[in-house]
Amino acid sequence: MRVLKISLPLVCLFVLFSCTNNEQEKDNRTIFSYNEMAGITSLDPAAAISFENIWPVNQLFNGLVQMDDQLNVIPCIAKKYTISEDGLSYTFNLRSDVYFQDNVCFENGRGRRVVAKDFVYSFNRLFDSKVSSAISLLTNIDRSEKTEYKGFQSINDSTLVIRLKEPFSAFISILTMKFFSVLPLEAIEYYKQDFRRNPVGTGPFAFKIWEEGTKLILVKNPNYFERDEKGYRLPYLDAVSISFVKDRETAFMELLNGKFDMLSGADAFNINEVLDKEGDLRDVYKNKFYLQKQNFLKTDYIGILIDENIESVKTSPLRLKSIRKAINYAFDRDKLIKYLRNNIGYAANAGFIPKGMKSFDPEKVKGYNYNPDFARELLKEAGYPNGKGLPEITLHTTDNYKEQVEFIQSQLAECNIKLQISIEKSSVLRQAVNNCEYNFFKKSWVGDYADEENFMTLFYSKNFSPQGVNYFHYKNENFDAAFEKAQHETNEAKKIELYQQMDRMIVDDAPIIPLYYDQVIRLVNHKIKGLGNNSMNLLNLKTVTKQN
Fold first, then answer.
1. Cα 263–266–272 angle (5° rounding)?
2. Which CATH number describes the domain made up of 33-238+527-546?
3. Comma-separated ranges of CATH 3.10.105.10 domains in the chain
4. What is the pLDDT of residues 253-283, one digit of tens each?
5. Contact at 8 Å (CB) between 87 and 164?
6. Class of domain 296-519
7. What span, in angstroms and rounded, lies between the C-alpha atoms of 508 and 368?
């Protein structure tokens, strides 16, 4: 055996060169870092019920379709789809160039091609209540004798058919939700219960490391199928780093120091410190980062239980429509937004459906504005002239909204409407409202998918709580008829007209007091380019670039 002799200086040069190359490669990597105060509980799409979980899942997985930043449904793994004339059958034609990320669960560690039966498996898995948070979204899937008990069917490797019991125009929007991502049987069988922290998908980034409560690292998927308009393979970033700093002051300092590239949400930093009263970034921070503001499909409101079959409602002044309307007119939503929210959001002067939805139109749905004189007239009409004899009303809320409801309390007092505030724990409030124990309560509703049905379902009489989300027990036959008609309507213009009609009924019957339509707000490092923003507050990092 011959021994190769290398001089010591040459060895040192080789080691130095190797180290230098490794350091250069490390320095040239682009890593997007953000903080998640609330923490992440699972990376399984079946559990993607909160924004904390949805954001990383969106980087790891894909579905049949996806949303663009204008909330249009566009192709993803399905290159095209067709809907039958009766609205009961959806046929998806799949791309042939989509592969699962490389992982030890596959033979030789190489990810295989995605086929239609992978969607059948992934979607059927959602029926398991121990695994999934999406069961309520599957009630319209037809698994009857008519479909041979196959609501999801793989015709061949590239063709998937989904069958519904009844036409449902919002269904294609529902399929953009991360619940309906594709995942491989091999990974579930290999990792079993531990799949939640060992995700295997098709997304632009792949799982690397998760130290729960400390850091989550995702790395670029070199085999990702989507490309930009110039033909370059996405994503541009090399990695995504997610931290879990709970203290917002510490997180803000990390943003200032460049450790974080983004903070998201009005709760993630001190808005009074960072924003002026007009909602603009203060000059002192403009050289550090930029501000993103975008409509958010979220309506904050005060709900009113109006079901007179419930004993507590029989004697409540809130059973009277005139009282409910008087409260709606008795406070200034614009002041609430300007002084208590630094102009984050918009006064809810146009019904319940929020700004950002296609049917939102203040000219066609006229809500409530500040008119204390008219509020007094309505009190008189209800039999309480100048508020005389009107019983005190208790408003149940959480500590997060204490300042806002105190402002409403002070304004209502000017019309002699006495409001008592009861601060509750979130879990207590949620359970009590669901069980019809409170007549007057502060809540909000966030759109799960980009269709007005998701907002109007709160007022459908077949959705009475505690089984459903109609916490007000609102019942209106004309509303129900319009709601059911909209489910079957495929013409977009007619659908919009129906939802506007429903929203006008809600304004007139006043089972709620709309407060404001929220906004997505983000602070972003100037080095970050191409970070999109949409009304669903979905984080999409596949087209983001970062300057070194």
1. 105
2. 3.40.190.10
3. 296-519
4. 999 999 999 999 988 999 999 999 899 999 9
5. yes
6. alpha beta
7. 10
